[in-house]
Design brief:
There is one protein chain. By secondary structure, this protein is an alpha+beta fold. The chain has 3 domains: 10-64, Orthogonal Bundle (3-methyladenine DNA Glycosylase II, Chain A, domain 3); 87-151, no CATH class; 161-276, TATA-Binding Protein (2-Layer Sandwich), CATH 3.30.310. 40% of the residues lie in helices and 17% in strands. The chain has helices at 10-16, 30-40, 52-64, 73-86, 91-98, 139-151, 174-189, 193-202, 259-276, and strands spanning 101-104, 111-117, 120-124, 129-131, 161-163, 206-207, 216-223, 226-233, 244-250. Strands 5-9-8-7-6 form a 5-stranded antiparallel β-sheet. The chain has a 4-stranded antiparallel β-sheet with strand order 1-2-3-4, covered by helices on one side. A hairpin with a 6-residue loop joins strand 1 and strand 2 (111-117). The longest helix has 18 residues, at 259-276. The protein starts with 9 loop residues before the first helix and ends with a helix. The protein binds iron/sulfur cluster. Residues 17-18, 20-25, 27, 30, 33, 47, 49 line the site of iron/sulfur cluster.
Length: 277
């Protein structure tokens, strides 16, 4: 009978990493890096300090045991890139600009930010992101939160509401936003505007009346300086009209988040609201 190969363990990686916790890979420690390589498919190449033969061995072993990454390669690079952008930031100056909390790290290791993303709170250091409520989160969320920090805020909100199509650079993103956010929310709440109101209350929305026939009109903040105005028109079955949702942004929104991350934030909102439906 062929001998069954032993699967790679975290300790196997630790033994051949330099163990100097230099953070160049974007993780706080070699241990955290090894864990992410084995459990989340982080690319081994993110550490530049492997001996070439060790790297080749690890890559082959991962391939043989089918350790496919749950994430595309570019996402790890994006995380590392945006972490590089914030590495010299003084969080005590950033916190106010982007409307988030500030806490000191133990042992005088600087500070971290407490960010409210859709009423779930995350503790963000320059190397790690943790949920304070132990909610599931992933690498996409990390890149979103780091991008929000990296933008470092901008003009104060001006209360002028604009649609996505009026934002510079939105042409290629508009359709993704409509299908991944607006249409998804509309479908989840078709025939049930009351339920949408209840779900928006969970997100601490403020409701208002508007000179249109929208059944629901509200403003909520998926991120502290990024308000979404949501308008919902219920389906008119007899006329053949499906339910519709329109999201508007404060005209300063791109001071706080790039367009790609904004689309992702819209998709996150739709996902959260669909779960609450
Ligand atoms: S770059 Fe390599 S040596 Fe540095 S912390 Fe990451 S895994 Fe450890």
């Amino acid at each position: 009978m062929a001998e069954k190969k032993r699967l790679l363990q975290i300790l196997d990686l630790i033994k051949i990493l330099p163990r100097n916790n230099c953070k160049e890979c974007g993780f706080t420690t070699c241990m955290a890096f090894a864990t992410h390589v084995l459990r989340e498919g982080a690319k081994p190449e993110l550490c530049p300090y492997w001996q070439p033969q060790d790297l080749a061995f690890i890559k082959k072993s991962l391939k043989d045991q089918g350790n496919d990454s749950a994430y595309p390669d570019h996402l790890f690079s994006a995380r590392k890139f945006v972490q590089g952008k914030i590495k010299d930031y003084d969080f005590s100056q950033v916190a106010d600009r982007i409307g988030v909390g500030l806490e000191s790290l133990p042992d005088g290791e600087g500070s971290c930010l407490i960010i409210n993303l859709l009423e779930q709170h995350f503790r963000v250091t320059k190397y790690e992101i943790k949920s304070l409520e132990n909610v599931e989160h992933d690498l996409w969320d990390h890149v979103l939160l780091y991008n929000y920090v990296a933008e470092n805020g901008g003009r104060p909100l001006i209360g002028e509401w604009v649609p996505m199509e009026s934002l510079p650079g939105s042409l290629a993103k508009r359709k993704v936003f409509v299908t991944g956010c607006e249409e998804k929310i509309a479908a989840a709440y078709s025939g049930n505007p009351e339920r949408l109101r209840a779900s928006l209350k969970v997100l601490k929305a403020d409701f208002f009346t508007i000179d249109s026939n929208a059944e629901v009109a509200a403003v909520f903040y998926p991120l502290p300086k990024i308000p979404f105005q949501i308008l919902f028109w219920d389906a008119a079955i007899e006329d053949g009209f499906p339910a519709q949702v329109k999201i508007l942004f404060d005209a300063t929104v791109l001071d706080y988040l790039d367009i790609e991350s904004l689309v992702f934030l819209g998709e996150k909102c739709a996902e959260r609201l669909s779960k609450l439906a």
